[in-house]
From TrEMBL:
The lineage of its organism: Bacteria, Bacillati, Bacillota, Bacilli, Bacillales. This is Cell division protein. InterPro entries: BacA/B. Belongs to the bactofilin family. Residues 115-147 are annotated as: Disordered. It holds the Pfam family Bactofilin.
Length: 147
């Protein structure tokens, strides 16, 4: 309370919400997080996390950094980082993600495409076995080398 400096921040970007009982159709583009507890039909593209609540019902293709499904989704989705299907979640469509978590009870009906993030610089992306001759006794030695 005393001698505390309070940092003032600019206005925070607010998350978007489609509440229970609400219905929306169209194309939704947002840079913030989005939560859907109502019904949505169309296309969603978000720079944040898209959460489909337990009562949410979505008929759409979804692209976002992270997608959390606790309700019902019908469509193709692409999570750039991670897709989480909770115990009440249902997905019917193609899921593309770097990481995928399906909790017990979650249902995924469709195809899964796991994208691999690029390998960090200097680590090489693959390994190659090379045979080299040993100077000591003439036997062959195998070694791993990054390519």
């Amino acid at each position: 309370m005393w001698n505390k400096t309070e940092k003032r921040r600019g206005p925070a970007a607010s998350d978007s919400l489609l509440g229970a009982g609400q219905t929306l159709e169209g194309k939704m583009l947002c840079e913030t997080n989005l939560r859907i507890d109502g019904e949505f039909t169309g296309e969603i593209c978000s720079g944040g996390t898209v959460t489909i609540g337990e009562k949410g019902k979505v008929h759409a293709d979804i692209t976002a950094e992270e997608i959390i499904i606790a309700g019902h989704v019908f469509g193709d989705i692409r999570a750039k980082r991670r897709l989480i299907l909770t115990s009440t979640g249902y997905l019917n469509g193609t899921a593309t993600a770097n990481r995928l978590s399906i909790m017990e009870g979650g249902v995924l009906s469709g195809l899964v495409d796991m994208e691999q993030p690029p390998a960090p610089a200097g680590t090489g992306g693959a390994w190659e076995l090379r045979e080299t001759e040993s100077d000591d006794d003439g036997s062959l030695e195998r070694s791993k080398a990054a390519i």
